[in-house]
Amino acid sequence: MQNILLKEKKESIISKQIIRSATSIGANINEANYASSKPDFISKLHISLKECAETEYWIQLLEKTEYIDKKYANELLKECLSIKKMLISSLNTAKTYSKKTP
Predict the structure, then answer these.
(1) Residue 88 within any structural domain of the chain
(2) Which of 17, 35, 48, 87 fits as disulfide partner to 40, beta carbons 3.0 to 4.6 Å?
(3) Domain tally for the chain?
(4) Residue 58: which CATH number?
(5) Is 59 within 8 Å of 46 (Cβ atoms)?
(6) Is 1 a domain residue?
(7) pTM of the shown model
(8) Does residue 25 contact residue 52 with C-beta atoms inside 8 Å?
């Protein structure tokens, strides 16, 4: 019984972490839309990218500990990768643009 409770508690901790990191991605993108400067905009997008990487980690951990199955983990990781690609592209564009204009 204690082992089951411990397992459920660990899953709950991981679930909370993934919710925190995943929702932070969107929150920081939203903050970037209201950035006070180009460096601030880039910084917020970098934070979103880091939160995306953390979300990937938690998804992989959930799959490795068998809280979610491989198929579902792969679906979630595919979504994460799509978001990561968009963030990287946006960051590259923003960095290029910030170098061209004062």
Answers:
(1) yes
(2) 35
(3) 1
(4) 1.20.1440.60
(5) no
(6) no
(7) 0.84
(8) yes
The letter for the amino acid at 22 is: A
Does residue 65 form part of some domain? Answer: yes
Give the per-residue pLDDT at 102: 58
Residue carrying the six token digits 């397992």: 7
Continuous H helices in 34-69: 38-64
Residues present in the chain in total: 102
Integer Cα distance of 93 and 16 in angstroms:
33
Residue with tokens 């006070």: 36
Q: Report CA 93 to chain centroid distance, whole Å.
A: 20
Segment 37-95, tens digit of pLDDT: 999 999 999 999 999 999 999 999 989 988 889 999 999 999 999 999 999 999 999 99
Local structure of residue 34 (DSSP, 8 states): T
60: which 2 tokens? 């992989």
Give the whole-angstrom CA distance, residue 87 versus residue 11. 29
